[in-house]
Batch of 4 targets.
Target 1
Amino acid sequence: MSNIQEELNALERKHLLRQLTAVGFATSAHIQQDGKSYLLFSSNNYLGLANHPVLKSAAISAIETWGVGAGASRLVSGNCPLYAVLEAALAQFKCTESSLVFNSGYTTNIGALGAILKRGDLVLSDRLNHASLIDGARRSEGTFRVYHHKDVSHLEAMLSRRRQSQAAVIVTDGIFSMEGDIAPLPEIVRLAEAYDALVYLDDAHATGVLGSHGRGTCDHFHITSPKVIQMGTLSKALGGFGGFIAANRLLIDYLVNKAGPFIYTTALPPSLLASALAAINLIQKDDSFRKKLWQHAGYVRQKITALGFDILGSETPIIPIRLGSSEMAMAFSRRLFDEGVYLPAIRPPTVPSGSARLRISLMATHTQEEIDLLLSLLEKIGKELRVI
Ligand SMILES: *Cc1c(COP(=O)(O)O)cnc(C)c1O
């Protein structure tokens, strides 16, 4: 047993203490805290769908039909008919044979990686992968190794050194969640094919955002390879909650039988299935949300770079501003907060030490005036704190 108070004190001294604050939502670009309204730049609700009327009414009518809870796990009696409809839609959206919905993106990664990786298997993970991938891979029976961020030569060296009989899975984010850059998927898939490995692609941030109609990183690079297992969430651009795997039927049948975090938990509330289905249908019919998001992203990346900030190679609507120390990132974030902008600092261990940052995530629902206000505050506070 550790000294709990002392550990918390130590985190506070290092500016690494994390605390929960109540956040009320008014519209998707504004939040309320302690009775004050703030302009929000830290939500993954990229397309503004979390409070879209079409999703809300789909969820409400599912509640009227099926109630608020599923009552049991999917293999017992919780498998609402909406699951089959949603899974068919997700498979079609991701251009795969089949798909399987889990209760969250996090448990998708824990469950799928845990089921796929066997003792002695090699799991090769990008150094900047999301914590849920690292947790999933480390808790599995596989042997965990890390390659340098997006470094395909390093990855190839690791693949070529392995024993011939050793199975290997390459694990990568599609869009890296704290950097906003995109994985070199064509090269990774080429290596997977050359060295007979699988690719586990976490498209939490790419689903709804990247590729035609937001189909994700495979679509963006025009990749259709049976070597790729695609994972996504219903919780970010799709506006609701839940995770999924899109892959061939055989793998899906296997996960239904072997993934503990799928088997031993109550099914999702039917309202979330209904809203996810409405989201998938909406973004395939109407590309205007995504177009607006990318228009904002191009503008903000260009302006912030011109101000002299380091955006760490961002290519997407996730735009980090590297500040270095946790203390500076906290000070910058607090100043923005004083000015009415909500943009929390991202600190270690979420990001490597010495690379604390602000992480802007844009939404289609931000207005040009709101974005210009953010840019003028970044310039003002950046100069005041002498980081530009
Ligand atoms: C958010 C996130 C997850 C977890 O998804 P949830 O649905 O929020 O549990 C997994 N992977 C990545 C890369 C993420 O950013």
Target 2
Amino acid sequence: MSRTALRICPLCEATCGLSLTVDGTAVTAARGDRDDVFSRGFICPKGAAFGALDADPDRLRTPLVRRDGELREATWGEAFDAVAAGVRPVVERYGPHSVGVVLGNPNVHTVAGALYPHLLLGALGTHSLFTASTLDQMPKHVSSGLLFGDANAIPVPDLDRTDHLLLIGANPMESNGSLCTAPDFPGRLKALKARGGTLTVIDPRRTRTAKLADRHVAIRPGADALLLAAMAHVLFTEDLVDLGALAPHVEGVDEVGQALRDFTPEAVAAACDVDAGVPRALARELAAAPTAAVYGRIGSCTVPHGTLASWLVDVLNILTGNLDRPGGALFPQAATDRTPRPAGPGRGFALGRWHSRVSRHPEAKGELPLSALAEEIDTATDEGEPVRALLTIAANPVLSAPDGDRLDKALASLDFMVSVDPYLNETSRHAHVVLPPPPPAQSPHHDFALNTLAVRNQVRYSRPAVPLEPGRMAETEILARLTLAVAGRHGTDPAAVDAMAVRQTLGKAVGDPHSPVHGRDPGELAAQLTGENGPEQRLDLMLRLGPYGDGFGARPDGLTLQRLLAHPHGIDLGPLRPRLPRPLKTRSGRVELLPGPIAADLPRLGQALAERPAGLLLVGRRHLRSNNSWMHNVPALTGGSNRCTLHLHPDDAERLGVRDGQPVRVKGAGGEVTAPAEVTDTVRPGVVSLPHGWGHGRPGTRLTHAATVPGVNVNQLLDGRTLDPLSGNAVLNGVPVELAPLTDAQP
Ligand SMILES: Nc1nc2c(c(=O)[nH]1)N[C@H]1C(S)=C(S)[C@@H](COP(=O)(O)OP(=O)(O)OC[C@H]3O[C@@H](n4cnc5c(=O)[nH]c(N)nc54)[C@H](O)[C@@H]3O)O[C@H]1N2
Ligand SMILES: Nc1nc2c(c(=O)[nH]1)N[C@H]1C(S)=C(S)[C@@H](COP(=O)(O)OP(=O)(O)OC[C@H]3O[C@@H](n4cnc5c(=O)[nH]c(N)nc54)[C@H](O)[C@@H]3O)O[C@H]1N2
Ligand code: SF4
Ligand SMILES: [Mo]
């Protein structure tokens, strides 16, 4: 007897609603949910493989604990005993910063990852926090922090209404979008064109997205900040600056014009390797469009000037009056956001409140660069203790961060390591304790993080599609128990963690004059929470205190968990709306268009005007049937065009004597790898491309299928020393490399 269960897809940022066919406890099919208020039936091949991914026989079913050097199956009780016994002595002997925490990408796709890491970090009190954000979007957080006073206030392009989209270093036809949650991004791009809108794509590769574009600019990698600065320059010199309704909320416009005066189209042309007419035309088109949105992603962030490029994206949106207006770039308002406060000055955003121990990298948003994790473990200094114990949660930095070989050795040297991960992979193989979460069908889903980046305000919640298998533990409970174990409260009922979170939130809310529950009794409010367990009660709490919530009776028709459960396909909360000045938390209460740290970094960009890289530059790429490092174990998602090959342009292939399919040795600052060449004119001359997340098959891993098509780890070419200084983000694109073709006989 099969049944249908609805489940939001957790596999990428698009958050599509799926309709799963469940036979017993197995998911036998996944289709797009046509009634989903946001995704309307869209699904991609990864979502369609939900059942195979869920049932992957290599998923761990029980915790593993290292005994006599070997990872062995253990009970949950034994595993948490081992965690407490491993972490506490390190904290007590060397202090809290000697315990590192690594949070990986899937934390933005799980309920557990949204509700517990901050509590875990609070319990530990460590400054040694490293996340996938510094391999990804930290430059955007820093630019938002500086411009708007809130690192999480990230404007998203109004995809469904804009007349003109300028897309920089993003390939949503493969990635399905990022920092812009939009199920069926491809369909939304096609709709933009169908309604007469225009699409411009800036990318060194002619991607599937670039093929859709009205104009494709194949820029030299790493040069976007220069191109965007020249565009802003043109807006000033051609009198095209028009802030419109934004004007009263923005300060520093003239100062930006002054600061960018050297970045003329002629001055940037050679470094970008584009004609000076290009930035001029792009700026004029942007200014002339009735509405327009500038949007930058991975290719604009993971480069040496990532924060400046991210800042310039919003500067262009602001100078053309497109920030915070329909059809431009707006701030979403998610159902679990805090109740918006009245406008006014805030606390602002600070960088560098502490520094990494070895290379003195400044923290950003409470994080240190993931590129610096290996040295924080393997290098002694007089400054304090190295990281001696590590907790990795949903992260595989051995493949996703620079210089995996060094990190691999560093992890092997730790006193103690815990991984919360469903797989024994390149990273978790070093753990002393592995705590496996259940497969997605057995987990609840709500997009706490991604709804704050969605192109339409909406709210959806899925309860687990399948009950927890015997012997499994919900990931929410795993993280609650982990929090207690590292805090020295091992053995306490994990419900205490949720109860504490509820008490804290309510305590603040009742004391806040702007809260709908101001002055009420927290105990009485807590007793009203519904939900089957602590995490559901916390969701209920956030919904009820949020911008659409019932305010515990203050707005009787408002949102509650019960109301959401009555709408299994979700509740549409309408298109994005202008919200300024309320999201601003700068000290001035306005958008600070030329923040000090940005102004101080501009001379470095000035130096880049003279750069003319002579050799080859490496960029990455993504494939629709892959996701970072962990989906290569599902046969349906590998093979075909999803292979770890080195793309290079026919001109470069000819010059270097490389044949299609021939193995090529690629050398970078951090090491070398060998991959088969794929000669293609989709990369521009002077650029080669390798995808990331490959390089499987190290001993001690359990990824049976992935090990048969291992690919190579592109991040071995990086040494981790090249960062965007403001954000600490790794430079993963525009990396200088050398190629040497191998004869088939050479290894
Ligand atoms: N060269 C290069 N490197 C890159 C990038 C690039 O473009 N180029 N991209 C970077 C980006 S944007 C990112 S976000 C990072 C990603 O890098 P990571 O954050 O390391 O993420 P993944 O590689 O996706 O690994 C995710 C881990 O989570 C585990 N996992 C999967 N589902 C769950 C779950 O439900 N719960 C738990 N606890 N664990 C789970 C997987 O088994 C895997 O070990 O990679 C970065 N690395
Ligand atoms: N199928 C699939 N979907 C994914 C993922 C995945 O691995 N696979 N990962 C998810 C994650 S974690 C993220 S963060 C998002 C990322 O989502 P996107 O940002 O859309 O990621 P990419 O597809 O890597 O697109 C980045 C583009 O930048 C280009 N590029 C490289 N260097 C430069 C440069 O210097 N300048 C410019 N202008 N362009 C450059 C590359 O050629 C590439 O086409 O995707 C998410 N979705
Ligand atoms: S686009 Fe992303 S969210 Fe949608 S089905 Fe594919 S993997 Fe899942
Ligand atoms: Mo990412």
Target 3
Amino acid sequence: MGRSEELFERACRVVPGGVNSPVRAFGAVGGIPRFVREASGASFTDVDGATFVDYVQSWGASLFGHARAEIVEAATAAARRGSSYGAPTEAEVLLAERITGAMPAVEMVRLVSSGTEAAMSAVRLARAATGRDLLLKFEGCYHGHSDALLARGAGSGVATFGIPGSPGVTEGAARDTLTAPYNDLDAVRAILDERGEEVAAVVVEPVAANMGVVPPAPGFLEGLRELCARHGALLAFDEVITGFRVARGGAQALSGVRPDLTVLGKVIGGGYPLAAFGGRRDLMEQLAPSGPVYQAGTLSGNPVAAAAGLAALDLVDRLDPYPGLEATAQVLAGGISAALASNGVPHAVHRFASLFSVFFTPGGEPVRDFEGARAADHAGYARLFHHLLDRGVYLPPSGYEAWFLSSAHGASEMERTLEAVASFRG
Ligand SMILES: *Cc1c(COP(=O)(O)O)cnc(C)c1O
């Protein structure tokens, strides 16, 4: 028995399902999850000593790969000065300035510790600011696991385990969340025509990346902007994945669509627990202590996480990693698609900047929404996952997840990946 297997057995006795976040458990692909011993750059080594090219990268948090020297140094230096004070620090100001400087729609920002917390707080603010209760979200988009946002069709984690919403979410919470299919403006228009005056916010991943990668159809985000304006609802972009990943200014910079509220996480923490929500000044000023909307956190803006996040955003400014990521992603996605095609495996490779995913759809039909993602062959994805795992390449353990590139993925990682895919016959 390997060490991962032994640890997983022990974990299952003391931790529900053996993991602290469901998708880590390999439930969708079968087998024993690999326990990580250490990681560096594009790869990690498991507790049995096997090394894998890693396309999870902490679900996209590690834009510069694992244990990037500048980030490690910043975090350890900060830890030596004390791990948390419960009083403000300079790093929080610098990080807030960096975020607002990169995203013009984010005029003010508040730091929190997880994307879930950020999205949940943005929802509270939207409801308070509009005096309305309802939310509109999209099937297959994930915004963390707060009740309001888990209500229905909440993307990868939930989809992987086939749970419709979740037990424990009250009917009241579920009733206050309306859902529409992603990329379906007509559905949004119909819902808002009927109940638009009750909707506080339309919440959307501007590039859906929790049902595999599903880019917005041309005009979709622009249409949401216009419909929100017409009905007095706020538009909230969840850029927890896309912020500082698809571009320095996120998907809002690429689309030119200006949301009222923005939710950030993952990349801005440099791999540490840090997230943020921000937006229009008149909205953000309604938060306590400048306004009445309560929101707080013992570890919010934690100095170690803030130092790591700042170091990551310093690297963004200094290295401009996006052209390199784009080039790597293009070659890799193209190479994977070519290898599958030459083996006669029908598929659709979806890519948006350094995010991509592979759907095994009939005839290689592209996916536009959650229904399409669900119709893909997930048993086929599980076979691809294990085929690559056996060859030292670690994909997200679910066909509903995005594959994440880091700037540390280079020629040798690409070669290893494409070689592994070349022998996959479906
Ligand atoms: C990961 C994710 C979240 C939740 O962030 P956590 O830090 O895991 O709570 C929210 N929204 C999107 C789009 C995400 O991908």
Target 4
Amino acid sequence: MIRCISCGEEYDDDEIIYTCKKCGSILEVEVDVENIPRKTFDCRRDNIWKYKEFLPVNAENRVSLDEGGTPFCKCDKIGKELGIDLYVKVEGSNPTGSFKDRGMSVGTTKAVDLGVDMVGCASTGNTSASLSAYAARAGLKCAVVLPSGKVALGKLAQAMFHGAKVFSIDGNFDDALETITELALEGELYLLNSINPYRLEGQKTIGFELVQDLGWESPDRVILPVGNAGNISAIWKGICEFKEAGYMKDVPRMTGIQAENSAPIANAVKSGSDEVIPVENPDTIATAIRIGAPVSSIKAMRAIKESDGTAETVSDDEILDAQMYLARTEGIGVEPASAASIAGLKKLVENGEIDQGERVVCIVTGHVLKDPNVAIDACEEPTSVSSDPADIRNVLRTI
Ligand SMILES: *Cc1c(COP(=O)(O)O)cnc(C)c1O
Ligand SMILES: [Zn+2]
């Protein structure tokens, strides 16, 4: 069953609907979590379908690229420096290089269940990269709308290469979403942005996995970058379902990080207000979170409040520093938006919000290769040498 998160109105699973007809608010899919013993998941392959009892689609028809089951890396060097127990969940290891694959696997499976023939999305990049691949896998037609000139090179390459019809508009992500939503409401295509609650059903498996990664325990805190705020809402839903199922007792403080000039949710949390006021011209180098009017802000605000969590902002410089720090200290290469979680972690430790000894899971959302231009711009040019080994030896002795 699909339910409005504000007025509680209920809708059938086979209705194609994105917002409540009664009050206009956003929807969620209700899942029955009773009587699923924890051992159900033993000896299953490590992908999101391991948790198929919690996924409200027809698993027989699954559209899957073996997404999920991503690395969970204990990061002792950074952890020690900050005085915490740190784990990093590496979502860049998904099939197209971001956590979006979890949502698209379930979302395109739903599209197949519904019998639609075309899917579409607006995107800052990763949503389109993922949808283009999953639509190909499912044999569905696919249309994506991107903000012109603001999509990282790797993501654009993926969306184009997997065969989506790619449109570029003169506007930002929020404008692109408005345009594609109109087409979806006309019935032209099935919308797979995160306003579609089935996307979040796939993404909630991050919450499942991190609990299982910790031996069926909750961390003290989960930190992640927040753009449209679907992922923080999804992870919280997953955590709550696992708690309701009786798999663990505690829950983590959900902690969202936004880029300074794209921070409507962090601004609301910091000012103690429940009202999320959209940012007109959002801007940041972390293009995946360059979003001014988060679609899932009500869900995200609830997740933060119910979990006694928080939100913080970080500057582009802090993001770039954290990106390189993670790459060079722990060997984990992530795109700028993902590094916001590490930058936010650092800031929250420094300002005393995070206690010494806390067990923290940072979600790093996308792969470093998504945005090769940012990576290359941050580095020195390769050193030109002759083929004489002496040339290289001389340089090696100086490093
Ligand atoms: C989509 C995305 C985000 C933001 O997730 P939301 O669900 O929109 O809050 C963060 N990082 C990366 C790499 C993404 O692709
Ligand atoms: Zn409603």
